[in-house]
Specification:
Elements: H1 4-18, H2 21-34, H3 46-60, H4 64-76
Length: 87
């Protein structure tokens, strides 16, 4: 079963760091590295996705704190009962 809610939560996290480019960035990461449509993102995919995003962001910035915060927030979605992030 597709989990578009989880994908949208992941996009919201990406937008916090990348602005409007967050959705395209997340979509491409999922399609290219997980080889699936973004709406088929599952909790089980988040660890692998976070690892790929960590590598991708390292090409864009040397800010290791930002990279760690982004990927930690993304990975934490795997441990929530619902997919709504707390702000």
């Amino acid at each position: 079963m597709a989990n578009s809610e989880l994908y949208h939560q992941a996009v919201e996290i990406a937008r916090d760091y990348l602005g409007p480019a967050g959705e395209r960035f997340m979509s491409r990461q999922i399609q290219n590295h997980l080889e699936k449509p973004p709406t088929e993102l599952k909790k089980e995919d988040l660890e692998k996705l976070a690892a790929w995003i960590k590598l991708s962001l390292a090409y864009l910035t040397e800010d290791s704190k930002l990279i760690r915060e982004f990927t930690d927030r993304l990975a934490s979605l795997a441990y929530t009962k619902n997919h709504h992030t707390v702000r």
